[in-house]
Every structure is written in C-alpha cells, then in structure tokens.
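Please fill in the sequence for the structure shown.

STRUCTURE ENCODING:
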C-alpha cells in the first residue's frame, strides 16, 4: 500500500516535471523567430518617392511633409497606419551640402507629434525633439543650412514619452545628403535603380490584422515582431540591372537589432556609416545595426542570379530579446544582362580624426535600468552644458544585461575605444548612434560646432524607443563661451495654426 502510494507520488512528480520541461521547451522555442527559407519574395520592393521640393524667393529648398493616418494592406487585411504624405513611412528628402532647407511639417494627426532630423547638425530649435511639439492641425517650419558631409540620415517623430508609438505606426523616412565636393561619385548613385533605400522594420500583427503593440514575456527591450517590412513591403524583391548596387540600410525598428549578411556568405563593401562615407571601403560579410543606425553597402551580383539578404542572430543580444532570431530580408533579382558598374574606389573620403588631446571636457554616461547616470529624462533639467566649438570626450557604459543603442543629437561623433580597444572598421567613420551590448563601454569624441542656444536643449538617449520613452534620455545645451543655460526649458519653436 505504502509502496503503491509512493510509486503514485513519484509518477505524479515525474508527470509534473515533464509538463514543466515541455512547457519550458515550448516557451524557449517561442522565444525565437525564424523566417529563413520561408519568405516567398513575391512583392516588388517599394521605393520611397523622392520628396518634391521647390526653391523659394530666398533661394531656400522647401519641402512639405504631412503626418497623417491611413490604412495599408500588408496581407492581413486593412491595418491602421500612420505616414508622411501617404499611409506608411514618408518620402525621401534629399538636399545638397550648402543648401538652406525648409521643411513645412503639417500635423494632420489627432495628437501632438514632432519631427526630428536624426543625424543632422542644426540649431537646437530646428531639431524636432520633445521641445518642438507640433499640435494637431498646425504646421512647424524649421529651416537650416545643410553643413555636413554626404550621408544617409533619417527623420522620425520624437514626442515626449510617445516616440515608440509614433514610429511603430509608420512615421519615418530617409533624408539623403549629397556633397558635391566629396566624391562617392564612383559609387552607384542612381536613386531607386542602383542606389536604394532599405528601411528595415519588424512588426507583429494582432489576429485582426493590426500592429500589435505589446512586448513579449521576459522582454525589457520593446516590441519585437515576427514579420519584416522593408520600405513597408512584406516579402520584397528588388530587380537589379547593374553589376553593383548600393543599399542604404536603415534599422528603422523600435527595438530589434539586426545582423545583416547574404545567404550565400558573399562579401560586400561597407562604404558608409551613420554620418557619411568611410575613408576606405571595408570588405565584410556582416553588418550589425541597432535601432537608429545606418550602413551603406555596395553588393556585386552576377547575371541572372538571386541573392538573399538576411539578418542573422546578432551577438550581444540574448535569446529573450531576439538574440536567436533570423530573417529573410530582401531578395535581389539580377537581370540576365547587367550594366557595368565602376569598381568601388579604394579611397572614398577624408575622415579627419578628432584628437582626444583637444578635449575640453570628459563626461561619463552610465546606462542602467532605464536611466542614465541614475536619472530619468526630465524636460526641465539640463544634464550637460557644452561650450560651442569645443571638443568633448564621452565615456558611455552599458552597466547591465540589456542591450542599448546610444544616440546623440546635433553631432556626428567618432569612436575612440570599445572596451578599451581600437574600434572595429564599422566604427571608424562618422557615427551618431552606436550599439552597446551588455557590459560594453565606448569612448566617443565630438566637436559641438557652430550652433549655440542656451534656452533650447538637444538630447542624448537610448534609441530602443521603449527605453527612451521610459526615461533613458538626457538633455544638453550648447552655449557660447561664457554663456549660461537659460531655464525654463519649456517648449519652443515656430508653431502656428493654419
Ligand atoms: Cu532618432 Cu533622438 O532620435
Ligand atoms: Cu537624433
Ligand atoms: Cu536602451
């Protein structure tokens, strides 16, 4: 009797454990997503249109953007979306170094938003950060002179505590800068033909076909999707008619880190990062991009072939937040006859190195929890006062187990050290956003040139937008020598009703 009871108890324990293990295995398995080999590539890649512009009486190049709601069919019925001048994403703005640009941003949404020019060197009042809200029904018209090298920048909303939602619904676009003085002339440069924007975003859909906005269990990173959109296209292919093609990769996701490479392992040339071209191309098979980062790559194709761009499991990201996920991203379909492309030049541009010996200041930023240096974002607090035209060294350290993506407004910086060592080739050009895996520290250097405004701050923050919205952001002002910050730091900007 006792013996039978005992056996029964043992069996029960085994059963419970077994169920536990099975459940654990199920959860473990559900933790990773793979679309590799399962994407059919039946839709032509949408190319964001180049935004039309006009030259006004003062010789300024004027663009018009309208943030609006709409719907889009991603193959799940009608999904409610937001976009600029359309249902989803926005047109590509393009301007040349030296031009004065004006962007009239009209807010046709039912709530306030902002538009930030990510990577742009400009006056703080034009930055489009949380201090320049655009109320529903009103238009904001920032203007500035483009004063930086050719680069792949982008624009997106930045409303206080609401950035994730606005970007996830579809408000984002590319901003390409050209610089007649600094080449890239031998790089593929025909927009939409051999020079193509590739905005990668991951989405999760609800049963009724809407963007799902919740995080998974054990996930402190933000929304991670199981479906990729490239320029808003599901399962995209791109017809290639030239021997070489330049892809301007933008990680426009709110939280996911990608590790791009080709299915057949082919190498490609990394020619540019966030703030412009590299001094020389770097041949590699992989490029990792955290949210907000960009990379320009030149890929060579053979006549008639199909090449698949994938995202492989990124290093430094654990399984619970996408570290074992992999995706088929984009299929390149090479024509049977390809137009010849010039070889990628050995030298691209000068990237003058900033010298830490010139630094007026060294600051430390510790990222931990959702805070920086133990503080949460406060619109009324200035965390750093920088003197115009000085060079600063910033030591940025990820102190805990979650990956972060550190971004600084106003400047393009250089990476001096990664965990005390020389930076890898991908981090030797101009950067405005860097991936910080758990436990990593980076020493960066920047010159805060040209613009001072003691009353209007710029931001530095984590570009994992859930982190940013939850306080992982700080503010700095750039002042003229001897000037002091001028609180209160309420909202400012040129906001008018029409
Ligand atoms: Cu792309 Cu402050 O952000
Ligand atoms: Cu920015
Ligand atoms: Cu973060």
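FILLED IN BY: designer on duty
SEQUENCE:
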């Amino acid at each position: 009797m006792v013996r039978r009871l005992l056996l029964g108890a043992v069996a029960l324990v085994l059963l419970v454990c077994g169920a536990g293990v099975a459940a654990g295995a199920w959860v473990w398995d559900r933790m990773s997503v793979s679309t590799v080999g399962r994407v059919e590539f039946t839709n032509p890649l949408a190319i964001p249109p180049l935004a039309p512009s006009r030259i006004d009486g003062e010789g300024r190049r004027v663009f018009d953007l309208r943030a609006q709601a709409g719907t889009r069919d991603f193959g799940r019925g009608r999904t409610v979306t937001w976009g600029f001048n359309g249902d989803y994403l926005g047109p590509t703005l393009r301007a040349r170094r030296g031009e004065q640009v004006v962007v009239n941003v009209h807010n046709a949404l039912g709530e306030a938003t902002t538009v930030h020019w990510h990577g742009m060197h400009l006056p703080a009042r034009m930055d489009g950060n949380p201090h320049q809200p655009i109320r529903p029904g009103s238009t904001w018209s920032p203007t500035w002179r483009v004063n930086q090298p050719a680069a792949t920048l982008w624009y997106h909303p930045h409303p206080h505590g609401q950035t994730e939602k606005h970007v996830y619904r579809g408000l984002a676009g590319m901003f390409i800068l050209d610089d007649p003085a600094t080449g890239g002339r031998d790089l593929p440069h025909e927009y939409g033909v051999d020079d193509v924007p590739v905005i990668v975003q991951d989405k999760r859909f609800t049963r009724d076909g809407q963007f799902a906005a919740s995080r998974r269990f054990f996930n402190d990173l933000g929304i991670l999707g199981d479906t990729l959109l490239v320029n808003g296209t599901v399962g995209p292919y791109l017809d290639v008619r030239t021997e070489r093609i330049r892809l301007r990769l933008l990680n426009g996701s709110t939280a996911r880190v990608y590790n791009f490479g080709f299915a057949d392992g082919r190498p490609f040339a990394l020619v540019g990062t966030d703030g412009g071209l590299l001094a020389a191309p770097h041949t590699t098979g992989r490029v990792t991009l955290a949210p907000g980062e960009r990379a320009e790559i030149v890929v060579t194709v053979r006549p008639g072939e199909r090449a698949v761009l994938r995202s492989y499991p990124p290093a430094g990201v654990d399984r619970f937040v996408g570290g074992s996920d992999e995706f088929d991203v984009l299929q390149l379909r090479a024509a049977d006859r390809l137009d010849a492309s010039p070889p990628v030049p050995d030298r691209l541009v000068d990237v003058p190195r900033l010298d830490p010996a010139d630094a007026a200041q060294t600051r430390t930023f510790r990222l931990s929890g959702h805070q920086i240096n133990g503080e949460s974002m406060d619109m009324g607090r200035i965390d750093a006062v920088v003197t115009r035209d000085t060079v600063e060294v910033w030591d940025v350290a990820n102190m805990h187990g979650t990956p972060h993506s550190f971004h600084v407004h106003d400047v393009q910086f250089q990476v001096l050290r990664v965990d005390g060592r020389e930076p890898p080739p991908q981090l030797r050009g101009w950067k405005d956003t860097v991936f910080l895996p758990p436990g990593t520290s980076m020493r960066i250097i920047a010159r805060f040139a040209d613009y001072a405004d003691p009353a209007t701050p710029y931001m530095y923050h984590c570009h994992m937008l859930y982190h940013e919205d939850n306080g992982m952001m700080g503010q700095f002002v750039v002042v003229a020598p001897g000037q002091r910050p001028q609180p209160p730091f309420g909202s400012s900007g040129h906001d008018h009703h029409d």
